[in-house]
Amino acid sequence: MIEVLVDGAAPLPALPGDAGADLLAAEAVSLPPLGRATVGTGLAIALPAGTAALVLPRSGLAARHGITIVNAPGLVDAGYRGEIRVTLLNTDATAPYDVAVGDRIAQLVVLPLPAVRFVPVASLPGSHRASGGFGSTGTGARGEQS
Question: Taking every annotated instance into account, which residue ranges of this chain make up the domain dUTPase-like (predicted)?
């Protein structure tokens, strides 16, 4: 169970069985071409200890209008009690996009987290990948990094 504080008369953000909860805009915003804006949702939550929430883009907004989230996925820690805000980005170079109050702008997915403790060491154990970074896990059909 996740306690939800909703500003105004907004509906609860998810139905039983949904993987993600809809985040709705609590304010109107106009996104110019290639512009970004942080949009309030009017929603605050109390996550249980040992969980975190990820703020994810909506696939329909991305496919139809080029709207995504700048820092996707956004991370909400269990101790945070403020309003969840979403930084939207309009990737369209020519068309503005208007967000109206009540529009579904993102999704929130809550995940369990393992207990993790960071411990300083003199060296790390080896692995197949080692220190290989971006594109280091395979090659494309023409021998290019994928």
Answer: 10-138
Residues 31-83: pLDDT tens digits?
999 999 999 999 999 999 999 999 999 999 999 999 999 999 999 999 999 99
Q: Which residues, 6 or more positions from 29, have their beta carbon under 8 angstroms from its beta carbon?
A: 37, 39, 88, 98, 99
What order do you get walking across the sheet with 104-112 strand by strand? Answer: 21-24, 104-112, 51-56, 74-77
- Tell me the β-bridge partners of 109: 54
CA–CA gap between residue 24 and residue 42 (Å, rounded): 8
Question: At a CB cut-off of 8 Å and minimum separation 6, what does 25 contact?
Answer: 39, 40, 41, 99, 100, 101, 102, 103, 105
List the one residue out of 45, 65, 67, 55 whose CA is nearest residue 23: 55
Question: In angstroms, rounded to a whole number, what is the distance separating the alpha carbons of residues 30 and 99?
Answer: 6
Report the helix count and the strand count for the chain, using DSSP H and E. 1, 11
Residue 115 identity: A
Distance, CA of 18 to CA of 73 (rounded, Å): 18
Q: How far apart are CA 17 and CA 143, in angstroms?
A: 44
Q: How confident is the model at residue 146 (pLDDT cuts 50, 70, 90)?
A: very low
